[in-house]
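Quality-control log, excerpt.
Job 1 of 2 completed; input and output follow.
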Amino acid sequence: MRLLDSMLEYNEYFVRFEEYQKYKTEDKYPAKRVVMFTCMDTRLVELATKSLNLSSGDVKVVKNAGAILTHPFGSIMRSLIIAVYMLKADEIIVMGHHDCGMQNIDTNLIMEKMQNRGVGKETLDILQYSGLDLSSWLHGFDDVNESVAHDVDMITKHPLIPKDVPVHGLVINPENGKVDLVVNGYNNLRN
């Protein structure tokens, strides 16, 4: 059986036996009025929220590889702005983590793997010649604390983020759930 088939088969059980009931929340708004931007690492699926005593329905979660905010008007920033203005989030958490796959990533190895999976060198060359620096675009970060602080700074200074929204920076250890404070957003509130 293929993975998707087994997942859909389980879903029939999930619905038939009302397993969804234990995940229901009051509404679509985060009960603790917070949005978290974190990494898509599988170890953080539940750990990122549970380590901060956040349950289903407490928080909106936005994820990408490495919790890296690459563009001030990209999809991650748009999601954070929507969470603040439309989904009642009053605070933002940026959570990076130790042992992240995006730390010190070898972009040449990624491009080599792309070619091994069928992306032609000519395609990579066309993208380079068109002005896309693939190495920069695929690059992660060198230091997780600096990466989190950079994201917090970009969000805090964004012209569409209200001045009264604290933006916190945290780094979690995926081995034990310990969270370290990198930036206390309450200290950076703008008037």
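Job 2 of 2 completed; input and output follow.
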Amino acid sequence: MQTERTPGRTALILSGGGARAAYQVGVLLAISRLLGRHAGNPFPILCGTSAGGINAAALAAGATDFGAAVRDLARAWLTLTPEQVYRATLPALFGRAAHWVASLLLGGLGRRNPRSFLDNRPLAGLLQRLIDFDGIARAIAAGELRALTITASGYSSGQSVSFFQGLPGLEGWQRVQRLGVRAEIRLPHLLASSAIPFVFPAARIHREYFGDGSVRQVAPISPAIHLGAERILVVGVAPQRQATPVREKVQDYPPLAQVAGHLLDSIFIDGLEADLERVTRINRTLGYLPQAERERLGLRPVAVLAITPSRPLERLVMPHRSTFPPGLRFLLGGLGAFRPQGSMLASYVLFHYQYARELIRLGYRDAMARRQDLLAFLSAS
């Protein structure tokens, strides 16, 4: 494959987070405005996981016109409804709930055990309309894209697999329970990477079923580094936590929604925060070593900038509880998802344009508040 020019080494990492990934679109809109309407693709290396993987794939497919790709992605989020992501009719929801109850009562004696709480077949149609998968190869050929990675978790192997499509010279990698595999990114990779455990069904890729890529992803920044990134922008979906959080005295037992939200936070957020801390520590250590010693060890510093929400995203979900489909609203209410402690769960599954609009606005404001940092980062690319 011949390229018109050699793409750079700046990477964008978009983490998972279900409906919270709309926040990333606000950050991207701010970057597009800062760069100007006709700027080229500022992120030749795109790495995404779960819903962040969908955003990354849309950017990669339109990398030859970054501004237009961002606007198209924003338009998709701003017209999104739950029915475009999962079957939300009352018969569909209560039918699946009945399947779960029957399977539990019969001890799994039915012909087929439940696969997920929600049926995400509408999402497949949405992604086919939203993403021109052939555009990824065109962007690579045009020199606008070095690589795209989509990470998923293998349910049989237990491995975190980063599927990547990129320049011919790029090689895969293998570490403990995580590896990079060259592939032509298609719809199954996105469905697998965004298959939140228990919520959406796993997707089969070749011989194995894969689920949400945030599961067991202990080093989310690693794929970008393996693909040669020298500068990395990370867009998260949760505020940076204090080193010593305040512990409040509570009386009531946590509702199931709070427990589920805590579990989702550990899947989507903890790995990224730990990896950011790890990269910062390595960079600091390398600063004390002479260049010759760095080369002997095979280590190099990597500039990292992180943009995260200035406020918890679950606090924005409560005014939009009525936008949930009636059946799902009933089920979530039974789990306590509309109490202040349980709203975290609701924030991951509210795929509605009203909630997305608020997240996009917040992402845009947060990015513009870091305007000088972003301009310095992008100008050095």
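Post-run check on job 2. The beta strands are 10-14, 45-49, 147-154, 160-166, 173-175, 178-182, 203-205, 208-211, 231-235, 303-307.
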